[in-house]
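May I ask you for just one protein sequence along with its backbone structure tokens in two labelled lines?

_____
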Amino acid sequence: MPTKTKLRAAALDGTADDVEAAFYEALQRGDIDALMACWADEDDVFCVHPGGPRLVGMPAIRAAFEQMFSHGAIHARPAHVRKVDSLTSAVHSVLERIEVLAPGGPQHAFVLATNVYQRTAQGWRMVAHHASPGTARAPDEATDARQTLH
């Protein structure tokens, strides 16, 4: 049976979809090393968590996820994904379903995330993760042209 490390390495040698699956798996396990292996080792990678500042560079991103993992794993699953892929980049718009422990039992929250991947010398890697609060409405329901965007 392959080890988890070998499975993660295989995912990182695959497609942008494989890296995204490895990213969400690492979130669910609270595995900082596996999560950071999904990121490109570049100075200009960035991450924005809901309501948070823009984090630029691997040290800042790692520190933020370590802080989040200090409270336990993040039970986030992609519930709906829209993709724009090319030969060297991929942009995924993801509706994340987050399980939050609350008095009276688990509750679900939704986050809208944009994950950007680039094909690097090491294979596909994440270069940006931008998340904001979302709703459980299906994306088609949320695209009412009468809504104010900004």
